[in-house]
Amino acid sequence: MTAAIDVSGVTKTFGKGALAFTALTDIAMRVEQGEVVMLVGPSGSGKTTLLSVIGGVLRPSAGRVALFDTDIAKRSERELPVIRRALIGFVFQGHNLIASLTVRDNVQLVLETRGVSRRDARRESDTLLARVGLGDKLDAYPAQLSGGQRQRVAIARAVAGDPPLVLADEPTAALDAHAGLAVTELLAELARERGATVVIVTHDPRILGFGDRIVRIADGRIVPGNEGAS
Amino acid sequence: MAVHSRAKFVGTLLGVVFATLLANFQLGTMFGLLAKNTLFVDNAGADLWIVPPATTFAQPGQRQSTSLLDLARTVPGVQRASAVVMVGTSIAKPGGGSEAITLVGVDLDTMLGGPFNMVAGDPDVLRVRDTVIMEDAQRERCGGLNLGSLREVGGQLVRIGGFTWGLLPFGPAYAFGDLDLVREIAKVPSDELSFVLVDVADGTDPASVKSDLERRIPTAMVISRDAFHDLISYTLLSQQLGITFGVSTLFGLVIGFVIVLLSMYSAVLDNLRELGTLKAIGFSNLDLMRMLVVQAIVYALIGSVLGLGLVAGAAEGIRSANLSLVIPQTLVMITPLAMIVLCVAASFLAFYRAARLEPGIVFR
User: Fold this and answer.
1) Of B3, B274, B279, which has the smallest distance from its Cβ to A81's Cβ?
2) Distance between CA B201 and CA B177 in Å, rounded?
3) Which of A127, A228, B191, B352, by CA, is between 20 and 30 Å from A16?
4) Do A85 and B359 make contact, defined as CB atoms within 8 angstroms?
5) Does the ipTM exceed 0.90?
6) Which pLDDT tens digit goes with each residue over B231-242?
C-alpha cells in the first residue's frame, strides 16, 4: 500500500555561510495510511520544522518528501497550495481561526476552497461542528469561545472535506490538561472515523497514548529505536 | 471582510467617502460654474447663433450689422430670426455707487434671448416702457430692489418689472430689457446688434440651414446652440477653471487612494498570521488577490454610495443663486466605477505583501 508520508534524506538548513543552521539532518520517516503518529522531541529538536516540510509550507534543502506517492519537494510554488488544499488539514498551536468570521464560516471557508458548493459546505460544516460539540455555537465568533472550543473548531476545520492527511502542531499547547486530552482524543477519533492519517507534534506526554506510534526526534535527527513504540 | 478589523473598515470607508466627496464636490462646483456660463445660450430659444468671428462667450463685445438679420431671414428654413443687443452697463444704487450688469436687449415679438428662470414678474412686463428685469441675487447688492423699484441704468431711469434666478455668469449678472430701450441706454446705433438668434422651422435640418447661413454670411460665425455651449465650456475648461478644479479633484482622488492603500496594507500587516493560515490551508496567491480585490470593490461601492449621498446633501444645502453644485447623471454613474479602480489599485500593495508571505509563518 502506498505510504501516506514517505520522507527520505531530508535536510533543512536555514541561512547561509557562517550563519547557517541545520534544523533537520538526513531524516527518513514513513507513515502508513490511517496511522496516528505522535512526533515528539524537546524544544528546538526540529519537530515543527519537519511538520512544516511534510506539510509543504517549507521546502527541504535536500531530500524527498512524498505524500501519497506525490513528491512535493519538487513541486512549484504554484502547485503546492493545490496539493495542500487537496491532501492536508492543519491544526495549529494557536487555533489560527479567522477572527472576523463566525465558527461556521471558518469551517465553511475551507470546504468551499476544496470545491464544495456553498449549500453543501454549510450543511457539512454544521454537521462537523455538531460532531465536535459546538452545534450551538455556529454563529459565534472565535473570540466568544474558550480555548478548548476554539481548538475544536480548528479540528473541525482540519478534517472538513476529508483530507487524507491531518497535521497538528502542538494542538494542546495553549490548553489546560483536561481540555488538551479531550481535544486530542477528538482529533484521533475523527481521523479514525474518516480514515485519515494524522501526525501530531507534541511534547505533552499525557496525550501520547492516543497515537498508534511515536516517532522521536532530537537535534534534527530521528532517534532510532523508538519508532513503533506506543 | 476576512482580514480587516472594524476600525480599519471604517477608516478605509472614510478614505473612499472622502475621495468621493471631494472629487464630486469639485467637479460638481465646476459643472455648476460651467452651467452658469452656458445658461444663457442654453435657454435663449435659438437653434443657431450668428456671432462675430472668433467669439468664445455670449458676452458684450464686438457688434455686427443689422443687415445680417435681414440676410438670415431670407434663408429657407429660418422660421424666426431676432437681434439681440448685449451691453455692459451699470445700475446705480440709492446710496451712491453702482453695480455692473450685462444688459440684454430683446426683440419682444420673438422673445429669443429673453429672460427665463423668472421668480417674480413675467417676461411680457418688458412691453411696459422703460422696464427691465433684474437678477434676484442682485437685489440686496443693488440697494434692496423690489418689483416696481426705480433705478438708473446707464444713466436712464427704469422700473424693475421682474426677477430671474441664478443668471450669474463669471461676468456681471444679466438684466433684460426691450431691444429699443437697451439701444437707447447704451447708445447703440439702430444698425448694429450683438448677435442674431435663429429659430429653425420644424422639420428642417438645422445643419443645412447653418450651411446656407454660412454661405450667405461669410463675415460672421454661425454656430448651433449645442456647439456654442461646448465652445464656452471648452474655453473655460482650457483656461483656469479646468486646471483649478482638475488639480483639486485629482488631490481628492490621490488622498483617498493613499488612505485606502495604507489602510489595506496595514490590515494585511495586522493579519499576517491569518493570511498565513489561509495560505497554509491551500489558498493560492490568486485566491488572496481575489479576496483583496473583492474587499476593495466592497469598500468602493459602499464608500461611493455614502459619498454621493453626502454630496447630494451638500448640493441641496449650499444651493443658491450664486453657486450650485451640478452633478450630472454620468458623474453619478462613473463615480462608483472610478472608486472601484482606485480601491483595486490601492489594494495591490497589500496584495504584494500578502503574496510574499510564507505560509510557514503559522508554525512559528
Assistant:
1) B279
2) 26
3) B352
4) no
5) no
6) 999 998 887 778
